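Entry 14. Ran structure prediction on the chain below.
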Amino acid sequence: MIHNWFHNTLFGNTIEQYCYSIVILAAGLVLKKYLSKLSSRFIYYFFRKQGKAIGAHKFMDIFTPPIASLFVLGTLYLAFNKLSFPVEWQLAPEHSFGLRMVLHRLFQAALILSFTWLAIRVTEFSGLILIEKAKATPHKTDDQLVPYTKEIVKVVLAAMGILIMLAVAFDLDVVSLVAGLGIGGLAIALAAKESLENLLGSFTIFLDKPFTVGETIKLGTLEGKVESIGFRSTRIRSIDKTRVTVPNKKLVDAELINDTDRTHHRAAFNLSIALATSDLALKNIIADIKAFINAHPLTDSDPIIRFRDIKDQSFDIYIAYIVKTVEYDEYLQVREHINFEILSILKKHQANLAVPMRQLINATTA
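Output, structure tokens:
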């Protein structure tokens, strides 16, 4: 009885064929996650030496999604391959335009795009391996070249995948299509003017090398370490640990300071002394400050210490010196040490800092 029921026909297919398709479809969708992860782990076994620095979890995160998409397509093929459209629908064959052709070509397009996705992920994984190797070298150029090349290869693979899909799945003349794009290239370029400027900016950064990955730069009020350089933008980790994305065009057009290339830091300021200070005390203060800065192991020789201005409220001494360090924190430590010594010198010669007139008036009227 049940056996006969399974052989009943509905829309050109038996109940048995429908059950077969449903079971395959359900099993494939349920097991997709586990089978794709298992496949990724199996593939990692053959690349474990090269990918040791990346790790199995990162490898699986990269490869599981495209492998899962291939599992879904395989499940759909196995599930519906045994089914046929009812004869009474009189559908056109696959080589003629109709529902059969549309479904067949959509399946081909999805299959090609899935393999393209997998190829892009292979490039991503290879790029991560090369980045780790580049970090081990003393040259910073490698740290910039590898991510840049990786992005170029990914774009080329994506373009090739789309062209192959159009040629194979949709039977389009790709050569004529590419030639036609040349005619509309001007309109596309005008529409994507800013994107193209950022792309050219990335080429300029790569060729001119005003900075490389890992270096600290200043751009206006922004200061931080360069984390990555892409086609459109550069990512910078600011001093307060915020990641800032800056368009490459802005980095090329604006005045940019590469702090990593700095060999020294300069300190310059005015020291305002009270008018009650004697000439002899001023001369001794200048001499003592100059002697101390000269003797400091981290300052350059011949600092500038000059009695520059006589103002209504103060005698101004101009102080400028160079600190021989590339580290900003060490520069601040040296400057703090010198500032404390200046206060000691003023105290030694019984001199006081000048008080602004408005504070003097406020103190008098209080």
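The chain is about 60% helix and 15% strand. Will compare against last week's run tomorrow.
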